[in-house]
Design a protein that fits this description.
globular, 10 strands, Dihydrofolate Reductase, subunit A, about 250 residues
């Protein structure tokens, strides 16, 4: 039995089902980059080095459902390694949901890596239902690139750092407009600095962690980005918040 989630705002509803949750997180039209993170009350993004340590059944339920309408799931290579990602395969219910709407059964797995330190024999590539895309820089190691090109499309966007607006544009050219990103903090920080973030889905875990865990966004310079609250969900003591970037009036 799935964890109960209530919608507090807008349009309050008790014990929302999966279809209602997916609708709550519906993408708008056009290219869109969504970030999804979990944080403790005191700002820790991980427990014992992993974000999964903070989540409960409700967070895991939403985590899976957020992939359902996505055209692409974007993740930094460091997060892929640390969190033990495998191939981007959705569950049967999500595949059926997508198929009924004329979408491919699975989203494209897009990875960001400066060093291209990725194992081409890992399930991420070897078991992929759709050929993944790896975004890197023009200065990435040529030998690693040639090996990865056997199992993925490798695209250079930027000389010294990956330019996230260019990633969004390249995915849009491929017909992949709705991008759901699952981290990590360095990529989130870069995305903010480059003005690429459209949305943040934030699970607020009811715990205080202390210690030296990173925040959900990490970068050398601050990038103040006004956000507007869109929805509030609750599961027991946990809050699941959705924010959209506030666009300045022209």
């Amino acid at each position: 039995m799935s964890a109960r989630i209530d919608r507090l705002w807008p349009d309050p509803e008790l014990d929302v089902d999966d279809d209602s949750l997916v609708e709550t997180y519906a993408f708008p039209d056009g290219p869109w980059l969504r970030m999804n993170f979990i944080s403790s009350l005191d700002g820790a993004a991980t427990r014992e080095g992993l974000s999964g340590g903070l989540g409960d059944d409700a967070d895991h339920r939403v985590f899976d459902l957020l992939r359902r309408p996505a055209d692409a799931v974007l993740v930094a290579a460091g997060t892929v390694r640390a969190e033990g990602y495998e191939a981007m395969r959705l569950d049967d219910d999500s595949v059926a949901w997508r198929t009924r709407r004329g979408k491919p059964p699975h989203p494209v797995f897009a990875l960001v890596s400066l060093s291209l330190d990725l194992d081409p024999a890992s399930p991420v590539f070897a078991d992929a239902p759709v050929r993944p895309i790896v975004y890197t820089t023009q200065n990435a190691p040529a030998d690693r690139r040639s090996v990865l090109e056997r199992v993925a499309d490798v695209v250079a966007v930027g000389a010294e750092e990956v330019e996230l607006p260019a990633v969004v544009a390249d995915l849009a050219r491929r017909g992949l407009r709705h991008i759901h990103s699952e981290g990590g903090p360095s990529m989130f920080g870069s995305s903010l600095a480059q003005g690429a973030v459209d949305e943040l889905c934030l699970t607020l875990a009811p715990t205080l962690e202390g210690g030296t865990a990173r925040r959900i966004a990490a970068s050398a310079e601050a990038s103040p980005t006004p956000m507007q609250l869109v929805s509030v969900l609750r599961s027991s003591e946990e809050l699941l918040l959705r924010y959209r970037r506030t666009r300045e009036a022209s």
